[in-house]
Amino acid sequence: MKIGKVISIKNGLERDVVVRISPAEVYSEISEPPGAIQGADVKAYDVLEERVGDRLLVHLNLQTAGGQTVLFYTAEAPFDVGLLLDELEASLGDKPRTWKKIHRDRESHR
């Protein structure tokens, strides 16, 4: 699993992976399944904070009009996902959102 990371905010938001967000289309090169999503098809944002041992992974899922869940982005920083949510809402508008936290021990995540 590729994990996205903010590498600069000095000259505008830059990440180590390609992310494009516009009213017409959203795209993340690390989404699962891969590919662009039409902006009008995004119906909800779901964030899952998953602690695995000492490591925090924050997953941003998009729910589509067709009922599909797309793992759009994964980061180690809630701040990065918060910025992504701001970008999504600026382009696509306010949508239903959830933010959940789970904890898994190292043994159960293998």
Task: Provide structural commentary.
This protein is mainly beta and 110 residues long. The chain has a single domain (6-104), classed as PH-domain like (Roll), CATH 2.30.29. Helices cover 14% and strands 45% of the residues. It has one helix at 78-92, and strands spanning 6-8, 14-15, 19-21, 25-28, 37-38, 42-52, 55-64, 69-75, 97-104. The strands form 3 sheets. Strands 8-7-6-9 form a 4-stranded mixed beta sheet, covered by helices on one side. A hairpin with a 2-residue loop joins strand 6 and strand 7 (55-64). It starts with 5 loop residues before the first strand and ends in a 6-residue tail after the last strand. The model has no long low-confidence stretch (mean pLDDT 92).
Helix and strand topology:
Layout: E1 6-8, E2 14-15, E3 19-21, E4 25-28, E5 37-38, E6 42-52, E7 55-64, E8 69-75, H1 78-92, E9 97-104
Parallel strand pairs: 6-9
Antiparallel strand pairs: 1-2, 3-4, 4-5, 6-7, 7-8
Tell me the distance between the termini: 13 Å
Strand content: over 45%
Helix content: 10-25%
Major β-sheet annotation: 4 strands, mixed
Helix/strand/pairing class, anyone?
mainly beta
Instruction: Give, in order, the helices and strands.
Output: EEEEEEEEHE
CATH architecture: Roll
Taking pLDDT < 50 over at least 5 consecutive residues as the criterion, the unreliable ranges are none
Total DSSP E strands: 9
Number of helices: 1
| Number of structural units classed as domains | 1
Main-sheet strand order equals 8-7-6-9
Rg over CA atoms? 14 Å
Mean pLDDT, to the nearest integer, reads 92
The name of the CATH topology is: PH-domain like
In the CATH hierarchy, what is the class? Mainly Beta
